[in-house]
Amino acid sequence: MQSLLSVNHEVRAFLKTHPREDGWITYHCCRPLVRKLYLHYLVDWLQAIHPDTMTACAVGKESPAQELLGAEENVVAANLDIDRATHNQPKSEAWIGSVEVEWKESTIHFYSPFMEQCLAVEPLILMAVKSNATLRDLLCGLKQYGLMRERNKNREIYVVNGENIPVSEHSWDDLVLPAQMARDIRTNVDGFFAGQERYAYLGIPHRRGFLLAGPPGCGKTLTLKTLASNTPAKFISLLGTADVDDGMLRNALDLAEGCTPAVVLLEDLDRMVQAKGISLSHFLNLLDGLNVLNGVLVIATCNEPDKLDPALIHRPSRFDRVWRFDLPKYEQRLELLRKKGGTFFSESALETTARRSEGFSMAYVQEIIVSALLECTHDDQPPSDDHLLKSLDTLRIQRKEASKPGESMDERETVGFCASENENRKSSR
What CATH number does the domain located at 158-324 have? Predict the structure, then answer.
């Protein structure tokens, strides 16, 4: 059983290894200071944004109690492993252990001792640094990440014609897109919300429209999720369902106008404009009519931009920028395979899989990894290259058999935030 003496011993050991006479400045942080400095997010931030700055990291996180109770042990373990491999999303804010960081050519050490709940319910983090200016610079960056994490807690995307969607945490590093394209999207979105005064000075209406176009499963939805996670604006979504109508579209734009800065997501635009309840002339008038939507960014997605009316995409005041999300090339497929399966499979197996997955969408490439990990879990075996290659072969056969004459696999893959909800609604009719 841990005692206060053992915790005190750990603190003394940390102070002893960072003596003042050697230039070290040490800080003892407990709540509310840990929360105020966002130190509980330190490990998540470094791993997600600045992994190269960590010269040493020996930390652990305690799983939430609900993951450990009321379930069979082997099932919980399998779920946790697959989640780490495929989503890499933090499950807990608290961390224990030590982290050493090289920041702006200066060393910073962090240490959080394990403390049982009977001893303390507040986190304790020790810091040692030789430059307060360097520490302040690091904490400034950490604060921005912490604000984003706090902002996204309990945030939702309001869906006019469906169930609201919780905003999940996504980093720009999660996207596997051509580097210039990712920078272009991010720069344009950030620039829109940061440039309100500039728009006013130039006499330009503060509204923009972007279109993300391309086959399903190629990154459009993940891009939207990343934008929602990292953009300080209210997100309102309208789904391109068969029953969407002019009133729902008007409602979405009115809601956005009433809570600016806001983003209106028009999902499956090619389906939306073909719905019986949508009038194209009314749609166009809402986008760039006399009633200018100041402070509103409209982002639409579509699978087949060639089927859109030219009046929609050939006039900049409606959709000023169009980005094409094509099927991933070999380099992008390999990058995604490395991100999701690099821990479990050899480089040669990943390269082989990337070469043999020509024509796969990003969603299908990720499914190769997920299926392989599920298979090895089912077999109660550690992941091997054989599992990966078997998963690839299975999905290649599945795609071939699922494609009907005259129908592409792209038409069969579901897209959007609420794909599963849409399918459920269809089946219930």
Answer: 3.40.50.300
How high is the mean pLDDT of the chain? 81
CATH code of 330-411, in short, is: 1.10.8.60
How many whole angstroms separate alpha carbon 224 and alpha carbon 226? 5
Residues 325, 285: contact at Cβ < 8 Å?
A: no
Q: What is the pLDDT of residue 404?
A: 54
Cis preceding-peptide flag for 32 (omega within 30 of 0) = yes
Pairing verdict, β 321-324 and 124-129: unpaired
| Token digits of residue 134 | 């360097």
The pLDDT of residue 414 is above 90: no
The residue among 260, 241, 349 whose CA lies nearest residue 298 is 260
Distances in whole angstroms, Cα of residue 213 to Cα of each of 156, 233, 329? 24, 23, 17
- Listed by start position, the domains of the chain span 4-152, 158-324, 330-411
Distance of CA 307 to the CA centre of its chain: 30
Cβ neighbors of 403 (< 8 A, separation 6 or more) are 409, 412
Least confident range of 38-47, 270-279, 340-349: 38-47
Q: Around Cβ 77, how many Cβ atoms within 10 Å? A: 12
Mapped onto helix, strand or coil, the DSSP state of residue 304 is: coil
